[in-house]
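Protocol step 4 of 6: record predicted structures for both targets in the notebook before any analysis. Target 1:
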Amino acid sequence: IVNDNLVKRFSQEVQVPEARAFFGFQISNAGIHSEMYSVLIESLIKDANEKNLIFNTIETVPCVKKKKDWVLRRIADDRVTFPLKVVAFATVEGIFFAGGAAAIFWLQEKGVMPGLTLSNELIRKGESLYTDFACLLFKRLVQRPSVEEITEIIREAVIIEQEFSTKGLPVSLIGMDCELMTTYIEFVADRLLQALNCPKVFGVPNPFGFMEMKWANDKMRFDKVVDLCRKNGVTSTSKEKVLDMNVDF
């Protein structure tokens, strides 16, 4: 849904070429992320009925459907102004993935399911970048929504995400404390409010120390990934870069 609305709404409404280029990059990444999620589901879920249920959660799980309906109301509706859509988009990327990300990184702290946790760690970097870009775009707007309008949008999203993390897909299933998760989502919302030049609403501390460490280590981990993906020959010496036509291929 977010991807479709980027194509149909933001790419058409935004006038800045650099922003359009970024959204194109985001759309491409979202396709890769969707494929990764599909591979994970195919690998981890063997029961066909359960697998089908997961692929259709947007219609079968009420709190997930609430997320869809919220996106359609806040972003897809033509009556919504572009500045409000920017805030809603930042909210989707910054809040609607917060609970799931924290749950997966909690598993990572326990040293289980390394494939799931690594892939989601890389995906989360993208989600963080999209949130940051939406906030940057917001700060370039000439006419911005009021603090009250922004706060209302974020409060709505917090309620939906809290319901998702404590009732729809309760984190208690993997041993996490639902109450702490509720607090964490409020903490994330306050961070987003500050990024949008608004005061905090909830005023709660981060209950998950491992997430603080995750944010602090992001750059170090990103550098590690870049190093792994570096093009062949970049660190080679001048002697090693000499073309030799006598080598065997």
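Target 2:
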Amino acid sequence: MYELRLKSGGVLLFACIALISCGDPAPKFQAQRVSNPTAGLQTPFVDGLVPGGDRENSYAWCMDVLPDPADPSSEGWLYVGTGRDLILAFAMAAGVSQEQIQPVFKEDLPEATDGRARMYRWKLDGTGDFEEVFRASNLSGALEKLPKEIGFRGCMTYETPDGPALFAVTVEPLGLSPARMLKFEPGAAPDAQPKEVFRVAPWESGTRNSLRPLAVYDGRLLVATQTNELFASENPPEQPEGSDASTEGWSKIADDSDFGGLFESSGFSLWQMVEFNGWLYVILGNPDPVAEKANQGFHMFKGRLAPDAPNASAETGWEWVPIVGSGGKLPAGLGVPAFKAASLAVFKDQVYVGTLTDMLGPWVSGGLNSLTMNMRPPQIYRFDASDQWQLLVGDPDDIFLYRKSDHRAGFYTATDQQIVMPSRYQRANYSLNQYVWWMEVWDGRLFASTFDIKVFLRYLNDSSLQLLGVTQQQYRADIVEAVSLLPMVNQNPEGFDLWTTDDGLTW
């Protein structure tokens, strides 16, 4: 984890990065490592938040801030939920065996020894290290070495009538135990157990059971299940002990039928939600490898409590209006089938939409050839209170004829070498950014982070491609040559990118 400082002052928390910002029209940031600050001096490079490092903490998957009751004037505590051994799980889902993984990735992809989800916290004044405040348990019996939960896919600080608390939702990998929402109280001791305030049973044995999207709408906390049930509560209570679903104190405001049965028919689940202009806007996405049904891009609906509306649900009183896909004004994925999900942020009276390209699905279903054929750099759009859309960052098409900013999809900029190439290469977009993972607003600026798969190119050579199942020698040679030539047209450093704007147009 890094802290990103603007030389003239301010503070922002963004995904797994702390940012400092102000109104400077051309802000300049300086990054400083705050987790394992000397890790960059070691070989191999080890981080993972905790002192000494933990390579099995794949992602800082979610985070938010809780106040410190012992020191109300302080900045409080940053809570971070991680995902465990995720890249390893993705590789194995694509058919790469444990025996193949080590020769290809070597020590960069560690063996999974403890997949239990963790929650950490760090005092924002920088006076201490990250400390663990929760670790999931294992299953029992013959499965005692397997974790019940492998990560926290979302968390949010919410002001209940009893005060603020952090609510975090888990993912269970095997369909053998519930996915849960846990409530972390401010000022709790590191070994205090969080309260379980929401529990959903597996929808199908042997299939991942996950909670992800959280939002606040009309003063209530919302959570959505993988099967598109949407619940709301003003003060989520502790649930009775058990392993069955338990939603006491919650009201259901939608189910899969309100979204055209998209989960039942195509595996699309509620992905992210925001409140805007009196409506709740929701994204339904399917970035998973079960892709035989998911032959279309993401969907978007907006909903509100309107019991007198002609299409309102008799059960909940909510009406839901399709915007993208499902008969909405725009086609699924905004016309790009590869855009399987999207992130949302409200900024200066408009909603910003950053797309996510499915990488795992094509790899699992068709190998590396399918993956390379389906890569599509992400785009950023926005719409206003009248649901009028604009393309900001991206490549124009038949639906959006021009973009408002200077940046192509993936924030790609052609190199001088590309400009003098034959025309068909001049027009190509060689960005390896594949999705806008998260967007956040701070101090009058919007920040957007990307995931760049360029980091994986270092592992591609003839021998590793053979291990990964690429049997055709000429195809392997073509991949190796393409990797060697890529720096001519893509000079963006590998790893994530972080972009910021104060108007949505200049990034």
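Step 5 preliminary note on target 2. Residues 75 and 124 are 6 Å apart (CA to CA). The first strand starts at residue 2 and ends at 6.
Proceed to step 6 after PI sign-off.
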